[in-house]
Amino acid sequence: MSWNDFHQRQSAIATVLGNARQNPDQALDRVPAPFTDTTELLRALQYKWTQQLTGRIDVALAETDDAADGDRIQAVTEAWRRTAEANPALRDLLDRHQANPVLRHDAAREHRMLALATGLAEPAEPDAEIARVGKAFLQLIRATPTESRKSCLLSLR
Questions:
Q1: How many whole angstroms separate alpha carbon 108 and alpha carbon 136?
Q2: Is the Cβ–Cβ distance between 76 and 60 less than 8 Å?
């Protein structure tokens, strides 16, 4: 990919996210060039989300590892929430299209990453089990107030 291609893709993504802020239901009605179809665009949007989430998780875990009382679960929770707060249109768009097969596959990958990053699962466990734990973790952090989240998370361990 050339720099020109990269900038065209970034501009198209920015346009789609701007449209999503104005009219979320119709944000993907027109797929801007250089994307050829909705699947390719959704893949690029998911990649953008994954890059930002992974970066925040890496920083949060590095800070947690340096702290004497580091809580990996709390660090990953806050990293996910900060990423969602910084990218509301992107998160909403991905949530609206979560039934798309390409996003279901990427969601499972994200679930595995979350489970492993929190320490709620180990790399030697079966991928399906790791993804199940990560999915449950994500459901909890999206739906549960902070006070009751800790007791729920303990049941995942």
A1: 11
A2: yes
Compute the residue count for the chain. 157
pLDDT tens for the chain, 157 residues long, are 788 888 999 999 999 999 999 999 999 999 999 999 999 999 999 999 999 999 999 999 998 876 666 799 999 999 999 999 999 999 999 999 999 998 988 899 999 999 999 999 999 999 999 999 999 999 999 986 654 545 555 555 5
| Whole-prediction pTM | 0.85
Asked if residue 92 lies in contact with residue 20, where contact means CB atoms within 8 angstroms, the answer is yes
Cα–Cα distance for residue pair 31/155, rounded to 1 Å: 43
